Amino acid sequence: MDTLALVAAWVAVVLLIVLVGFQIALAAGVSWGKAAYGGASATLTPTQRVSSGVAAVIWALVAWFFLSLAVPALPGIVPPSWHIVVLWVLVALFAIATAMNGISRSRIERAIWTPVSAVLLLCALVNVWQAIALSGTAG
Prior knowledge:
Layout: H1 3-28, H2 46-70, H3 83-102, H4 107-135
Helix pairs in contact: 1-2, 1-4, 3-4
């Protein structure tokens, strides 16, 4: 793994840990709803709290995926033959997240999560390009 891809993987891990913490806090009932779900209410509904709990688990798995890229000795959650596919899925997901956060009605959600999503998108792109280069395929 080249230095840029390694740094991008670690940046993704750190940002995803922050995101997991945020989602856990929302699931636990912390009144940060103005920075999530369009910012309609500081207090989330029970359904939104469950959604945040599920999101925390999913983002934790994504963080582990990037961590396993940065530290190849760790067991991955998908076989290496799937890395390019998973990274392209994450590129799409982070692109959608960047757009959705960017058009949120919540100013604080736009201010916090649009740049986070955009940086995660760049991290995924750098790593998919690295994976393609290492595989010798067109991706």
